[in-house]
Structure formats: C-alpha cells, structure tokens
User: What shape does this take?
Amino acid sequence: MEIEVIKGCTLDEVKDPTWGTGVMQKRLVLVGVKLSGAITEEERCSLLEEAWRRTTDNGTRSLQGTDEQGRGLLLVFDMYVVEQLSVFKRLRHALRMFKAAITGNVNVSSGVRVVVIK
Assistant: This one.
C-alpha cells in the first residue's frame, strides 16, 4: 500500500490559529445526563440556559451524544479569549486559575455542575 501525499495539506494541520495555543480558554461548566433516552431539544435549551449563567464572557460550546445503552449526554464548555476580557473578568479568570492550581493537588471539586435527568 502506498501513502499518497496531497500537496499543501498535512494531517496535523490546525485550521484555527488560536486553538491549542493557550489563547482560547475553555472550561467545562455543565454535564447533563439523561438516563432514559436522548436529550430532547427542550431539555437541551434549559441546560444551556443554566450553563450560560456560569459563563465568563457569554460564549459556550456544547457537545451532545447518546451512548450504546441509549443514555443522553450533553457537555457545555465556557469559551473565551483572555485578551478580550474586561478588567473584572480577567481578575475572575486569574482567581479561578489560581484556585485550580491550589485545589487540584488536594482533590477538591472543580465546580462542574452535573444534572441528571430521569
């Protein structure tokens, strides 16, 4: 079998220049689990509304899926660029990073909200 190289394209190329460079910050703020089937659009909207209140700069990214047993899962991430934050939000970010550095070594909860839907 021969590997064909496509001109100008590499497999490890990153399209977004901020992703993975430390410029774009992301943190998990909410995990939604539904034990009896996939998460509906109404449940998804209510979970996103709840997660939106915990965001730093009103930007979120959500991932949704269903496992082999039919349980639904929704992950909501807070996404922001530190250089674009106001002074108060930057201070909040710095304090959150400081708290994570200290509490990470003593197994203290990180503050992720977990919602289980029956």
